[in-house]
Amino acid sequence: MTDNDEKTARAYSLMAMNHDHVWARFAKEEMLALIDHANIRTPIKVIDMGCGSGRHSLCLALMGHKVRAFDFAQAWVERAKQSRDSKSESISESNGTLDIEAGDARCPKAMGGADLVLCLYDIIGSSPEKADATAIVSSLFKLCFPDGWVALSCMNGLQVLRNMPQLTLADPDPQDLEPVRTMQNCGEVFDFSRMLYNPTKGILYRREQFIKDGNIIFDTVIKERRYLPVEIYDLLCQAGFDRIEMFSVRAGKWDFKKPFDPDAPELLFLARRPASIEQSVPKLSPQRGRRISSRGYTLDLIPRDEIEPHHAYIVSRIFCSSFGKNPNTGKLKILGPKKMWERLQRCSYLCLLSSDANPVGYMFGTEYNHLLTKIAWLDSICVAVEHRKKGYATAMLDAFARAVPTFEWLGATSPNPITPLVLQKLALGKIYLSGRPAPSEIIKSLEYICNECEDLRGCKIDPEEMYIKTNFSVQLDANEKEWRKDAPAPAWWTKLANLPEDYESLLIIHRSSISQVGDAD
Q1: Which of 25, 210, 252, 418 could make an S-S bridge to 218, C-beta 3.0–4.6 Å?
Q2: What does DSSP assign to residue 327?
Q3: CA-CA-CA-CA torsion for 81, 82, 87, 91, nearest 10 degrees?
Q4: What whole-number distance in Å separates Cα of residue 479 and Cα of residue 431?
Q5: How far apart are CA 244 and CA 369, in angstroms?
Q6: What's the rounded mean pLDDT across residues 74-86?
Q7: C-alpha triplet 395, 230, 240: angle, nearest 5°
Q8: Integer angstrom CA distances of residue 141 from 71, 137, 152, 486
């Protein structure tokens, strides 16, 4: 066990998980709803990973099923055994069985297999490491019989983005967090006002205290990860599951016919393991335009009619983790999912790039088919800080350019010299930027689309300098300003690395006149 594992195990073991606890009182209703939805009519074999008090395992055993339950916290194993022993006669009368052992969902040993594998209530996400979630989902696939089912639930990461707790970019000092007694009292860990969130790592922090006889017996910072629906979907797809269903649920309210609710505290996934080995080839989400690169990333090019609200949450999270602090306020720049969804609804294409099934970059752009000219505008592009300098931005820009082959002009604004450098590498055509003004006819076209284009709306264009004045102040770090190549820097590099405050560079590419982009120097 890691240090975080030990702290988490102890915190959960101190919870008063009696029959009336909010997590426990509806176990029977939840299992009845699951069995009915899965159309299970005869006794089956079940494995319950992370069984906790054994509440779900016990319900299934009392229904006549053959259940094996595991938990990595020994205190929970003992409590689950006590619950089982108190109902042993009833379990025997129903012809069910319930075996309970210690076991880690990340590396199951000698656990056999089952027709139904459960992994419910915060097993996924209790570790902040994405690798642990990947290992757990892989284990679930191995434990599930062919044509069997997995039921997996986790806390809803959409809630974090919709409620946006205070942000941090580093592990906080415990004294920075106001202590709560949520786990000891009720388990309703959805009050974000006393949590911190690191958007670059997707980690949520809260400080839990446990009291006994008026004394603090345990005080710790809980680190957990709350996943977006698409992240869990991709983990299940990559493991080899198919027929994946997703539901938004609350304790005791597992309604499989209810429309998805982004504000629900929990996500519940039902996934089937294919019946044959040939069907079990790992796959990715069935989104149009996805391709796999030899570098190991996945890239989705999603047209407007296939962009969905959950994409806005992904893009918003990448944005908030990447654009740094506002130099005027010192606070992290935030563009919430609601505003991002408004922007995505107007774009023509969204490009999402993932590494190890984790979204790390996005780009979206819009086609403007004006009477004077046709221009495809690069609205926004961003790659998470820790994934930069890997060619990801180049791959996304190339995908967008290929998606709009009939558009003679490409346009963009940029607060730094990185975007023009990437465009130079792609050699899409003649580039106009600082030091090389664009033709007057294209500047005239920009004036016609400025009310539609988010980058240009309300902005003043300087056609001579190829600048636009915005209300978006960006504080560049040294890596975004320093030229690190052996060859001399282009003439425009220094100017774009030191733009006046509230200004961005205007970039225009003429695609029908292919030449070396270096001509713009």
Answers
A1: 210
A2: T
A3: 10
A4: 23
A5: 39
A6: 92
A7: 90
A8: 18, 6, 11, 50
Please tell me the total number of residues recorded for the chain in this structure.
521
pLDDT tens-place string over residues 429-438: 888 888 888 8
Q: Give the relative orientation of helices 130-143 and 229-239 as an angle to the nearest 10 degrees.
A: 50
Task: Name the E strands within 317-357.
Answer: 349-355
Whether the predicted model's global pTM rises above the 0.85 cut: no
Evaluate whether 466 touches 437 at the Cβ level (below 8 Å).
Answer: yes
CB 287 within 8 A of CB 385: no
Q: How many whole angstroms separate alpha carbon 435 and alpha carbon 521?
A: 7
Q: Which amino acid is at 62?
A: L
220: closest CA among 511, 514, 6? 6
| Strand intervals (E) in 409-492 | 409-414, 430-432, 460-462, 467-469
Residue by residue, DSSP assigns 222-286 as EEEE-B-HHHHHHHHHHHT-EEEEEEEEBTTB--TTSPP-TT-SEEEEEEEPPSSGGGG------
Give the C-alpha separation, 351 to 363, whole Å. 5
Calpha distance 469→505 (Å, rounded): 9
Q: In what order do the strands lie in the sheet with 266-272?
A: 97-102, 66-71, 45-49, 114-119, 144-155, 266-272, 242-249
Give 3-state DSSP helix, strand, coil % of the chain, rounded to 5: 30, 30, 40
Radius of gyration of the CA atoms of the chain, in A: 27
Question: How many angstroms separate the CA atoms of 494 and 225, rounded?
Answer: 41
- What lies within 8 Å, CB to CB, of 253 at 6+ separation is 26
Distance in angstroms (rounded) separating the CA atoms of residues 89 and 94 = 9
Query: Any idea which residue has 């070396």 for tokens?
Result: 516
Nearest to 106 by CA among 46, 153, 45, 49: 49
CB 120 within 8 A of CB 90: no
Judge contact between 247 and 30, C-beta under 8 A: no
